[in-house]
Amino acid sequence: MPAFFLSMNLPILKYYLPSSLSLKLRFYIKDLTLTHVRLETATRDGLECLFYANTLAEDPSLLHLICSILSWLQNYLKKTPQVIDFPLAPFSSTFMKQVLEELQKLPIGQTLSYQALAEKLGNPQAARAVGTALHNNPFPLLIPCHRIVSKRRGLGGFAYPLALKQLLLDFEKKPIG
Q1: pLDDT below 70 — which residues of the chain?
Q2: Beta partners for 131?
Q3: What DSSP line would sit under 61-128, residue for residue?
């Protein structure tokens, strides 16, 4: 047995992707499954990606997972639709799974109200429950809860500062170039 232990407190890898979007992303991986993502505003342009895992950084399966995540991010920056093709931890409830799966269909640059998302799910009375599911989304950016806004054209809520939600929406609406 190795004479060291793995800690989820220190990143095993830091990676920078140039972009006009200033964002720090923390990816948490357990047993080769992405368990959650945390967002922060960054102090410089670009995506600063920090990966935390309970697996050795040299593990080829972990490196493959990280490369898949980085590829997804590169496509996002190009505003190219993409499917998440790496393992995500299971959602906490069937309703949350339904909400987040429906949300993945919403294209980059478009928004939808909480009410409209509830209606798409066949439950027009569930706008508040939709908001709760989005607030607890473990995969912000990957599953774009920031694209859901208030029916009255306000930003609505967000699990992070509203300025971060606005930053993401502005980035997605800007033409590439």
Answers
A1: 1-9, 153, 177
A2: none
A3: HHHHHHHHHHHHHHHHHTT------S-BPPPSSHHHHHHHHHHTTSPTT--EEHHHHHHHTT-TT-HH
Tell me yes or no: is domain 94-173 CATH 3.40.50.300: no
Contact in structure between 48 and 13 (CB atoms under 8 Å): no
Catalogue the active-site residues.
145
d(CA 105, CA 35): 21
Joined together, the tokens standing for residue 67 give 């490369």
Note the pLDDT of residue 13: 85
* Cβ partners under 8 Å of residue 102, min gap 6: 117, 120, 121
| Token digits of residue 97 | 């799974």
Q: How many CA atoms lie within 13 A of 113 on its CB side?
A: 12
Cβ burial 31-48 (10 Å sphere, 16+ → b, else e): eeebbbbebeebeeebbb
Indicate the domain borders of the chain.
13-77, 94-173
pLDDT in tens, 53-76: 988 778 889 999 999 999 999 999
pTM for the model: 0.89
DSSP state of 57: T
